[in-house]
Amino acid sequence: MLDTFLREQSSFTWDTFYSDRNKAIPFFVNAPDENLVQYVKQQQLPTAGRVLELGCGPGRNAIYLAKQGYQVDAVDLSSEALQWAKDRAKQQEADVNFIYRNIFDLDIENAAYDIIYDSGCMHHIPPHRRIDYVRLVNKALKPGGMFALTCFVENGVLGGADISDWEVYRQHSLRGGLGFNPDKLKMIFKDLHAVEIRKMLDMEQSSDCFGNSGLWAALFQKKE
């Protein structure tokens, strides 16, 4: 009921958003997140195994992980985004299993993944779905596995609405995506160990990595 309540107030669709590949959107670049590259290079992630990316968009992070030797399942509910991701993967000869589905409709075995990555998905999830998101992460991740995400800084340069969960429903809107702070992230993922929460590093557009200080980079580990 609440899903429908919020959806009926907006004409926005992710397929429309991704339909113009030349749009001046910062994360449309064909480069992985700088924090993800750091996690791999510094071996903060397992050096091999299965990865689940939630809300993969045009696939830049999934492709990077596949080229590092991981077995990658990448999920998105936009057919436009996934077609773009498949085109990129073909060009770069990367083997990624792209899945067209809502993340809450996934049928995942317990402890199936060594790594879960989310670059910009969670801050678009309404508060009433947050508990489902946390359950998904806890179910899918192996003991000792790593969960990493990027999400909006409250009132950051990319947005990040600084409103209460109640205001989401009062205003009938996520206002482009919810902002978070480190304390709130630790509270949401209280069942996981917080390894690191920092702002992403700003990267030049010509760089081989994407980074913007309007986003948090957070790394958590599931307890053994």
Automatic annotation (TrEMBL):
GO terms for biological process: methylation. It comes from the Bacteria. Pfam families: Methyltransf_25. GO terms for molecular function: methyltransferase activity. InterPro entries: Methyltransf_25, SAM-dependent_MTases_sf. Residues 51-145 form the Methyltransferase domain. Coiled coil: none annotated. Gene3D superfamilies: Vaccinia Virus protein VP39. CDD domains: AdoMet_MTases. Keywords: Methyltransferase, S-adenosyl-L-methionine, Transferase. The keyword Transferase applies. This is Class I SAM-dependent methyltransferase. It comes from Paenibacillus agilis.
